[in-house]
């Protein structure tokens, strides 16, 4: 490996023009490819790609209006309850929404409700169930008919009698009243109060206006512009109606706020980190030129990664790129080691000879660790693995191939004499190794304790905890959640029926909702046959008893014309489009593509068992609730975490073994990573830090950073014992500088207000402290023990031969 790198250096050194042309071509090509890349800001990219989970999430979002923006109006004096003072502000806001052509809902449309009720009355036979007919049979007894008509006569005498006259014409006996009640129940997913038809919260303190975003909840850039216009309209209304306060919330608003907070936090963290890191590098290197070498190397690696992403994908998450900035902490090792060794070697070629092998080995193992993310079932984690691998390969390529030719040969010649003297002085250097038994005992005890606590490290699957919510948003959402029509001790269960066609999905759905309004053609035919049999069986009551009794109570022969039409009208099964008045308003079974969804409330205690029962049927039906989706995230996190741990560990260890050629050397290099991992998990549990969808990627990062450090320390130990020259101290200084850069770069995220970024900062501090401590302490102790044991064995064999 070192021979190949040196031969390549010599060739490009003789043909510098080729080196520069090649560098320019790669840079220009990468820039052109990067310009094709488009960006999104959807944090849901971190969610599992599992088909069942994605479909559950899509159904949940569509049913629960995840694309809605809620504009909330309330009096500035929150102790008052006076809807009349709020309504003018809602009306004024509504006028502005009309000019903006927004699709809004601020009032209950009574005409639409009456239209839906009329549709159900006109087509009642399509909605009646077997249970309804048992009740209707009793209502057709002569006494029951007389009682129903007497009630109808009395209702018409009241001042509001004209409002119920239509219902009496359509249903004089109240046969379909339970059907209309069921219709109202099917459309009562939220609880609200009405004032002059405007929608208020149940306590009448807040009026609600809903705006449907045409961009969904994840297109944050477009939603940002829309929400900006909504806020402008709200501000104008607040000025016109001073006593009213207007707030805006909803999934699109929260997504925009998260994206903005991530940008703000990242900008602050990067700015602080840049100042501190540049100051640290200048203090350590005392050379602007060397600092420039580091910056250019990282920029080249970043450009290569962006170009590679543009080849593989048209879009990439800005959040992924922001998190990928932590890879800089690993990539900086390569140019940092190079420029640090420039001060101790007579030429760039000599630097390559010393560090090419450990750098390339470290790069291969780290790239392999990040490639372990690629098979995961999360778009963001997969993209992060690809981006990290490409950036690390790009950076090492620049450091090994191009950077040596940007360094002037005479920049290091002045230290040749000094180096020769130092080399002579240290030619017979005999390394010593720590053997403090108290330190070893303490390490073992701490490792055992933290290893025990590591067993209890848990995952946080609550998406709300990695979303950024302003206090006022949190309070507002708490008030809106009270509008949900939920019963204490119950949960909403979503029963999903798939089919090759809508009709097939409905046939499966009918097993769960026999009283559904929207049914398959087969069920419609059953209901129609049941209706015809009912009319035929009760012909005397409907065609003789009812008209005769109606005349006795003063009703004309034409009073129930609509009901008579219904009795004589032929009915036929209808396609799904016929039920648009119901499906378009979310009444009853929800139709999404070729999927039918029934939403029902079930006791919390039986929810899991119902979901499990459906999953075992394998008949095109399945069920989920919010908790089961969270459980799916937890399972995915756990599986990913275990996979990352084993895959990264195996990849790193195999490469270490192949590179060092000895199992024991690979074990010494790997040990700091294994032990530090126990320390990290145990410390996280003790500090109450939990893994989530975002910070789980640091599992790979710890391996990536840890193996670089461990390889250098182990290489240094082997080199000193083999060549009897000091080099370990130089490696340790480079590692300490690299670790300090990473501590600053990622540790600054601890000041972030966004929970996801803040958690990255927390784990970085814990992880890096553990990795550096183990890298500094463990390899010298274990290597020293191995050397002493080997020497004793050699000595013993020698004495035996002499004897």
From TrEMBL:
The keyword Signal does not apply. It is a multi-pass membrane protein. It is found in: Cell membrane. Keywords: Cell membrane, Membrane, Transmembrane, Transmembrane helix. Coiled coil: none annotated. GO terms for cellular component: plasma membrane. It holds the Pfam family MMPL. This is MMPL family protein. It comes from Hoylesella enoeca. The lineage of its organism: Bacteria, Pseudomonadati, Bacteroidota, Bacteroidia, Bacteroidales.
């Amino acid at each position: 490996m070192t021979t190949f790198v040196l031969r390549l250096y010599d060739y490009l050194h003789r043909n510098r023009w080729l080196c520069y042309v090649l560098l320019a071509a790669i840079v220009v090509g990468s820039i052109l490819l990067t310009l094709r890349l488009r960006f999104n800001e959807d944090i849901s990219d971190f969610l599992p790609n599992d088909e069942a989970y994605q479909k559950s999430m899509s159904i949940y979002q569509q049913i629960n209006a995840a694309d809605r923006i809620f504009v909330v109006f309330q009096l500035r004096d929150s102790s008052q309850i006076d809807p009349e003072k709020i309504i003018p502000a809602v009306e004024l806001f509504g006028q502005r929404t009309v000019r903006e052509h927004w699709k809004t809902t601020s009032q209950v449309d009574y005409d639409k409700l009456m239209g839906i009720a009329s549709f159900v009355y006109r087509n009642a036979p399509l909605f009646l169930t077997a249970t309804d007919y048992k009740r209707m049979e009793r209502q057709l007894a002569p006494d029951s008919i007389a009682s129903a008509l007497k009630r109808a006569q009395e209702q018409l005498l009241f001042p509001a009698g004209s409002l119920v006259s239509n219902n009496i014409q359509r249903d004089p006996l109240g046969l379909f009243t339970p059907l209309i009640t069921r219709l109202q129940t099917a459309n009562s997913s939220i609880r609200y109060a009405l004032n002059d038809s405007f929608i208020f919260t149940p306590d009448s303190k807040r009026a609600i206006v809903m705006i449907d975003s045409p961009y969904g909840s994840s297109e944050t850039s477009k939603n940002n512009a829309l929400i900006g216009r909504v806020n402008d309209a709200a501000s104008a209304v607040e000025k016109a109606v001073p006593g009213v306060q207007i707030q805006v919330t909803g999934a699109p608003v929260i997504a925009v706020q998260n994206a903005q907070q991530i940008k703000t936090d990242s900008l602050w963290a990067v700015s602080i980190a840049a100042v501190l890191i540049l100051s640290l590098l200048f203090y350590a290197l005392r050379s602007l030129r060397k600092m420039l070498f580091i910056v250019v190397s990282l920029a080249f690696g970043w450009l290569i990664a962006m170009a590679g992403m543009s080849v593989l994908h048209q879009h990439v998450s800005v959040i992924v790129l922001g998190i990928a900035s932590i890879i800089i902490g690993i990539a900086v090792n390569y140019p940092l080691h190079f420029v640090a060794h420039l001060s101790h070697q007579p030429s760039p070629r000599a630097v390559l000879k010393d560090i090419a092998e450990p750098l390339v080995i470290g790069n291969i193992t780290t790239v392999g660790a990040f490639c372990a993310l690629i098979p995961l079932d999360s778009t963001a984690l997969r993209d992060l693995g690809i981006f990290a691998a490409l950036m690390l390969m790009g950076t090492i390529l620049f450091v090994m191939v191009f950077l040596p030719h940007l360094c002037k040969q005479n920049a290091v010649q002045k230290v040749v004499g000094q180096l020769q003297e130092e080399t002579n002085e240290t030619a017979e250097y005999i390394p010593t190794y720590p053997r403090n038994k108290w330190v070893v005992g303490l390490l073992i005890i701490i490792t055992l304790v933290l290893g025990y606590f590591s067993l209890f490290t848990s995952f946080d699957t609550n998406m709300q905890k990695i979303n950024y919510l302003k206090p006022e948003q949190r309070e507002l959402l708490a008030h809106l959640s009270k509008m949900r029509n939920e019963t204490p001790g119950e949960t909403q269960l979503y029963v999903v029926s798939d089919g090759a066609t809508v009709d097939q999905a409905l046939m499966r759905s009918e097993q769960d909702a026999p009283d559904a309004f929207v049914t398959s053609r087969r069920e419609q035919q059953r209901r129609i046959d049941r209706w015809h049999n009912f009319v035929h069986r009760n012909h005397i009551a409907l065609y003789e008893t009812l008209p005769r009794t109606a005349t006795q109570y003063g009703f004309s022969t034409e009073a129930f014309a609509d009901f008579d039409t219904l009795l004589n009208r032929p009915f036929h099964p209808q396609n799904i489009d016929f039920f648009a008045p119901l499906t378009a308003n979310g009444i009853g079974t929800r139709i999404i593509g070729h999927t039918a969804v029934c939403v029902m409330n079930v006791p919390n205690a039986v929810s899991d068992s119902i979901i499990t029962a459906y999953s075992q049927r394998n008949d095109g039906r399945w069920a989920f609730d919010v908790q089961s989706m969270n459980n799916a995230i937890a399972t995915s996190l756990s599986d990913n975490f275990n996979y990352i741990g084993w895959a990264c560990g195996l990849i790193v260890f195999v490469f270490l073994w192949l590179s060092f050629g000895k199992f024991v050397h690979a074990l010494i290099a790997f040990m700091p990573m294994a032990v530090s991992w126990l320390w990290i998990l145990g410390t996280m549990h003790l500090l109450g830090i939990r893994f989530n969808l975002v910070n789980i990627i640091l599992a790979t990062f710890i391996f990536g950073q840890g193996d670089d450090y461990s390889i250098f320390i182990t290489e240094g130990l082997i080199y000193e014992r083999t060549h009897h020259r000091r080099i370990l101290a130089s490696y340790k200084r480079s590692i300490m500088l690299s670790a300090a850069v990473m501590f600053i770069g990622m540790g600054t995220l601890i000041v972030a207000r966004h929970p996801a970024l803040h958690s990255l900062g927390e784990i970085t501090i814990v992880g890096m402290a553990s990795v550096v401590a183990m890298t500094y302490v463990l390899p010298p102790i274990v290597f020293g023990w191995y050397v002493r044991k080997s020497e004793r064995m050699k000595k013993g064999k020698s004495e035996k031969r002499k004897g």
